[in-house]
Each structure stands twice: as structure tokens, then as C-alpha cells.
């Protein structure tokens, strides 16, 4: 009986096994019928793009590191459809932008600087880092002087950092405009008063914690200022709390968006570059690619270059003493790695930007050179930079000064129809906030954490599926109004207290009323600035206490994962955005 049951059981196993094999075969067949991204069928409006692609172990976990080299390029046929820009009317501007405008008007409690400034208090500032890191320091220095009721001496720019730029304040910014425009907010002088040809008193040098609150300045800096009368704060970047009284936040906006006007020489050259881009196309994208060796080294990410890449970037990484050993795959999975130029190009094509779009690239020397840029140029052949738009003779007055070259990129990126950033550094934050303030111009930040899985699996999906996922994940990263909640992120990136919403018929006002007039600092009716403010400087937000409010001056906490954080004991360890040689 038992043997009969066994024979019956074996009799059923054979059909079951055949069914399983048939089912698996059917799945395999169907997987081939659904073409991957790189083998998407050529429809009438689609074309082939032959892209040289680096095979990176960060994208292919099965790739042996020993077989990877920077020079090893695999030719692949990648089919990317033509975009239909006419089908998407939000590529170049937000439909909601007209309802918002930048506003720097303070409350009626704000007093003129002549009534608030003490004649025996002088504040000096030594900034730190590259151009845009220093810009945050200059902006916050004005507000710090206002809190302390002190006269501000024109800030000193950092001439000792990695960039070794000898430019002073007046060679980058219009110093006379800076002083006069803020005259009702803070008394500003070019240098300390002299008596008999000598400075009346030398400065007492110290440093405040990062994110120092109003209370922090009043309890830590003011007593020193009252005793010494002249105080110089060093390494002054991000030394002011993110949350302040509204009137002080509006002062921040007035300084950053209106008083810091580039010199005529820089502005005029920047305008020429913009004009040449406009002559080529009605709209253009400015891309802050940020794929230079210093950024990649700081990120701790790996891009498939083998031992050569690890040695080169590891050497640069030693500049930051506080950085811990990184896990490249974990960093990429958490969205902390810059996208490759190819990935940036694919993201933009998926969003709907066609190959005919002109791109201005603001960048220094790209790691891997032309080989790394080749896929992006294949996706967007109309590829420009200040070096291709201007002659060597035109750039000669700027070429030896990294901050002046960065300023040219800043001007063009600011005026672009769409600005795309590939990291969350200083230039990205400053421009994102500025573009929000001046009408929410299209600003795209890759949602790297979500896009990681899409790029990892892009060869296993159709182009339409890939594009759909990219567009879904980019919602909330396109520079739309109220995209970031007030108070979230750095103030320079999200100046919510300085953005007002129109109501009713006011919403129909043309958005040109809030133009910044080519970055020249002029204030139009949307952001007019009348006489000014005295803040409730004694108030403090409990959320800011975590930044060392109870610390002694000179102590600070640096974030080792932040490229803008610097070692307090090191003078030359700062990094900033990409600056051209």
C-alpha cells in the first residue's frame, strides 16, 4: 500500500517539474520582450546616442575592482528619446512664481543706524573659504554688527586658503555701494580710524562658535567689545544662527541680494557671457557640475577609477583632518555623492529638456577630463563655458584670481533660465536662495538619494519607465514656491522670511517687477527698502542652543561631513565650490 502511494506521488512530480520549467522559460522570454533603457526601440522621434560610459563598481557591485581603470571605456548604444518641450510649459519657470516676490521691508520698530550705533565699538571680520563661503560671512557680519550696535570695518577676504586668491573686498565687490546702501542699517567704514597716522587701537582677535545666536553675541562678544572697543572675529563663516528675529533676517536679505554688487569689470564681463548665451538660444541651462577632484575627495565616493583614483583623491582628502574613513557605497546610497556628468545629463533628458538645449557649465577642472564629460556632451551637444564663450584676452584680467572667475560663473548662473546644481555646497545654497527671492526661477537639485536606485537599475527598465521615475522623484527638488518649509535648511538657501505672497489682484502683477536687474543690486517696487530696524536682540530660540550657545568663545563644533566645515586649528583646510584656474 505504501509503495503504491510512493508510485502515485512520483507520477505527479513529473508534470509539476515540467510546469515549473515552462513557467520560468516564459518569465525569461517576457523579460527579453520588455527592452531595457539601453535597448529602447527606436520610434520615429527617437535616435541612437553612442555614449562612452565608465563601468563603475559603485554602479555594478559584481564588477571586480582590479579590472577597473579610468581609461577603460565601454562603448554602449544608449537610446534616448527626443524631449517634447512644447508639451511641458514648466521647464523654464514655475507657474506659481508670479504669486510670490522678495521683500526686505522691515517692521516699523527698526531704527536708523545713526540712533543705534555706539561710537566706541568697532567690529572687524576675517572671512574664510572661497567666494560664496565668504559671501555668507560678509552677509552675517553686517547683521552681527547690528546686533552689537557697532561700526563694521569692511570685511577682509580670505587670502590664505586653498585657493590662494589675493583679491581684496574692493576688487570683487563695489565697496562704495556696499557702504552707502547699508548706511541706515549699519555704519560701515573702510578701515579703523587713525590718529597721528596710527590706528587708534589694535583689535582683540577671537572667534565665535558656529551658528552663534543673538544671545550668544550679546553675552559672549559684547562684554569683550565693551572692554577692548575693537574686536576682530576670525574664520567668519556660518557664525550666525539660522533663526533670528524677522527684521534681522530681512537685513540678511538686503545685504546678500542688494548690497553685494560685483565690480563693474566683473559684472560687465558676466553680462557679455549672458548675451552670448542668449544669442545662441532663447533659454539656457546653467549647470554647476561640481565634479572636481576636491569635491570627489571630500565626498569619499568612488567612481570606478581603481587604485589610481583612490590614491589621487585620498591624497587630497588628507586636507581635512576631521574626516572619517568613508563607505563609498553607503555614501552613494544615502545620496551624498555628486552625480556623474552622464547621470546629470540623463536626469535632464528625463525631465523633458531636449538635446537642442544650450548648457553653460560652471566648473573647474573635471576629474577625468573630456573622457568624463563625453556622455554629457553626447546628450547635450550645445555645451559652453566661459572659456568657450570668451577669448583668453577677455578672461586675462580674471584668470589669475579664482574668486573673480567664480564671480563670472555666479553672474551667468544667476541669470540662467534653469539652474542645475550637483551638490549642496555654498554656491548652490546662495544661488538657490537668491533665485527664490527673485521670482522662484527654475532651480533643480538632484534628489540623489532617490535617484540612486533608478540609475543603478536603469539598464533593466524602458526609457519611459526611467523618465517617469525620475520626474516623480524630482518633485520637491525643482525650485517651486514653498518647496521647503520655513525654517528648514540654511537661511541662505531658504530665505522664507524675505519671500512674500501676493493676494487677489496683486497676483497678476508681472513678475518683471521683482527682477534684480542683472545682479546690479537695484531694488524694484517688489522689494523696496525704506528706513530701518532695531531687533529684539535678547530673544533666543531654544532650537539654536545646540550650536554651542554655552561654549566659550574660540570653541566650536565642526561637522566632519560638511565640506564647508573647517578645522578650527587649521588655516588652509577650507573648500568651496568649483573655481576655474
Automatic annotation (TrEMBL):
Coiled-coil ranges (or none): none
One Gene Ontology term of the molecular function aspect: glycosyltransferase activity
Keywords: Carbohydrate metabolism, Fucose metabolism, Glycosyltransferase, Membrane, Transferase, Transmembrane, Transmembrane helix
UniProt feature, compositional bias: Acidic residues: 559-581
BP GO annotations: fucose metabolic process
Transmembrane segments: 12-34
Biased composition regions of type Polar residues, renumbered to the chain: 510-522
Protein's name according to its UniProt entry: O-fucosyltransferase family protein
Species annotation: Rhynchospora pubera
